[in-house]
Design brief:
The structure is a single chain. By secondary structure, the chain is mostly helical. The chain contains six helices and two strands, in the order H-E-E-H-H-H-H-H. The chain is globular, with a radius of gyration of 18 Å.
C-alpha cells in the first residue's frame, strides 16, 4: 500500500471522478468499468500513467507508486481469471462461511441469479463491441 495520505481537497477531487467507487485518505477503490478500460488500453500499448491521465486522474495526486501497484494487481488478476479477476470481491467474501448445506430451492435461486448476472454482463459487452465498431467506422 502506498504511504501517501490524501488531503481533504484531494479526496473531494478524486471522488468527483466517475471511475472512482470510493475514496478515503488512505486509499482509492476504482470501478470495475475503469479496470476493464485500463486492461484494454494497456493491451493496446498505452502506459499506465497515460491511461490514468486520459481517464481524468491527476497523476500527482494519485501517485506513481499507487498507479504501478494497481496496474500490476489488475494485470495479474486479468491473466489469472480474465474479466472476473478484475472484480472487487470484498463484499461477496465477507462474513462467516455457511455451515449448513443449501436446499435445492436456495441452490436454484443462486444459480438463476448467477445466470441473470452473466446475461447482463454479456449484454454490456455486446453494447461495448457495438460502440467500438461505430467508432471504427467514423475514423
Amino acid at each position: 500500500m502506498s504511504k501517501k495520505i490524501f488531503t481533504e481537497t484531494e479526496v473531494k477531487e478524486l471522488s468527483k471522478n466517475p471511475y472512482v467507487k470510493s475514496v478515503s485518505p488512505k486509499g482509492i477503490t476504482y470501478t470495475d468499468e475503469f479496470k476493464e478500460i485500463f486492461i484494454k488500453q494497456y493491451e493496446a500499448g498505452k502506459f499506465p500513467k497515460h491511461i490514468f491521465e486520459d481517464c481524468g486522474f491527476d497523476v500527482e495526486v494519485v501517485g506513481i507508486q499507487r498507479i504501478h501497484s494497481a496496474s500490476n494487481r489488475w494485470r495479474n488478476g486479468y491473466q489469472k481469471d480474465g474479466i472476473l479477476g478484475l472484480r472487487d470481491t470484498r463484499a461477496g467474501n465477507s462474513g462467516r462461511p455457511r455451515e449448513r448445506e443449501l436446499t435445492a430451492e436456495e441452490t436454484n435461486a443462486r444459480l438463476l441469479a448467477e445466470i441473470n448476472l452473466l446475461k447482463a454482463e454479456n449484454e454490456l459487452l455486446k453494447k461495448i463491441r457495438f460502440a467500438e465498431r461505430g467508432l471504427r467506422k467514423e475514423k
